[in-house]
Amino acid sequence: MYNVGIVGYGASAKVFHIPLIENVPELNFYAVVQRHPISNNDASKDHPNVKRYAAAEDMVNDSAVHLVVVTTPPITHFDLAKLALGNGKHVVVEKPFVPTSKEAAQLIDLTKKNKRLLTVYQSKPQILPALPYLTRPRAHSYKLKDRRWDSDFLTLRSLLSNNALGRIVDFESHFDRYKPSLAGAKAWKTRSEPGGGAIYDLGAHLIDQIYVLFGSPKKITAFLGSQRAENPGGYEDACTVLLHYDGGMTATVRVSVISPETVQLRFWVRGEQGSYKKSHEDIQETHLTKGMAPGDQGFGVEPDDWHGTLTTVDDDGNLNARTYPTIHTATYKTFYTQLAQAIAGKGEVPVKPEDAREVVRLIELAKQSSDEGRTIEV
What distance lies between CA 140 and its chain's CA centroid? Predict the structure, then answer.
């Protein structure tokens, strides 16, 4: 069993990491760094059998800790990951990896030097589910380089793998919300700082998903800014990023905070032989927030009326639309299951740091495109 120490005790740790770690038999939630516990947010009260440290330096010096999970704001990721790796720990870094690709390269070099494992919390599965209801094969294929565990992404990935849409020409990926006010936002999400802004916070997810499907684009055109009327800290709360690929495909990443819709679009993908349109975000976050855990009945299973729409072209050229069931084959827990196996020498880390570094590089190019008002060659 491997002892896990978590740096930070905010929503990320409590919702996205601890419940998953506690569901993996090979891992033990052993320690946490929380500098200033308060009455309604105290790791020692919530987890009385877990060691609490006031400083990361103290925890990484604990020889019983095997794996350190960094869940603090992005601007701290590099220093904390470097500290843990330098003290011989395996490391998980919450997304976004680090603010710059240069920092990412330094951590990768340190990982190799110290023979430790480094990964970024972007879950992805090993098994590609078969596509149900596909009536005939397509001529065009996509080699999927990597995989995720959002159920909508699994479903879309399966459609692409089985060529259900033919050659893709337009790929849209959205995180649109209606949050016109900064009220209630975390402090680091209200000010401009390295690793901050919508493109690092939510855009990193979307760019990474496109990268694992199609690789790096040839060109990037991006627009970063603020949609909120009041934004004294200059936080870039919205972004639109166009990723231009050979063969005529454009992938669009869009993050918005002023989208007054009752149902938000998540994916809209169009190809020569069909399209897939899906609304609603993956439900696992909602279930984790409500206290559910992997293994609980219904965990990760979305309502039937959340399913997407698949439109295909038949042999006579007619368009046929139908509700397409969302695939539920894995949960976020598998990230830590696979990581435990990697620590034991039985496989690779769930997310290679080299892939995370490339996503950070694409974000840097998107920021350059927006700042200079031009399309950037990748």
Answer: 27
What is the Cα–Cα distance from 46 to 150, expressed in whole angstroms?
A: 28
Amino acid at 29: F
pTM for the model? 0.90
Asked whether the predicted pLDDT for residue 142 surpasses 60, the reply is no
Strand partners, 159: none
Residue type, 129: P
Instruction: Return left, alpha or beta for 180; rule: phi > 0 is left, psi -120 to 50 is alpha, else beta.
Output: alpha
Element (H, E) at 312: strand 308-313
Instruction: Work out whether strand 274-279 and strand 265-271 pair parallel, antiparallel, or are unpaired.
Output: antiparallel
In this structure, the chain runs to a length of 378
Q: 250-256 and 238-244 as β-strands: parallel, antiparallel, unpaired?
A: antiparallel
Give the integer Cα–Cα distance in Å for 256 and 69.
Answer: 29
Strand ranges for 89-187 from DSSP E: 90-94, 118-121, 168-176
Q: How do beta strands 27-33 and 51-53 pair?
A: parallel
Specify the pLDDT at position 145: 32
The rounded distance, in Å, linking the Cα atoms of 304 and 45 is 39
| Tokens coding 250 | 């454009």
Contact between 74 and 194 (Cβ < 8 Å): yes
Task: From 100, 120, 70, 92, select the one nearest 360 (Cα to Cα).
Answer: 100
Full 3-state SS string of 161-194: HCCCCCCEEEEEEEEECECCCCCCCCHHHCECCC
- pLDDT tens column, 306-356: 999 999 999 999 999 999 999 887 788 889 999 999 999 999 999 999 999
Alpha-carbon distance of 69 to 64, in angstroms, equals 14
Please write the tens of the pLDDT for every residue from 232-278.
Answer: 888 899 999 999 999 999 999 999 999 999 999 999 999 999 999 99
Retrieve residue 1's tokens.
């069993």
Confidence of residue 67 (pLDDT cuts 50, 70, 90): very high
Q: What is the 8-class DSSP label of residue 197?
A: S
Query: Is the CB of residue 13 less than 8 Å from the CB of residue 69?
Result: yes
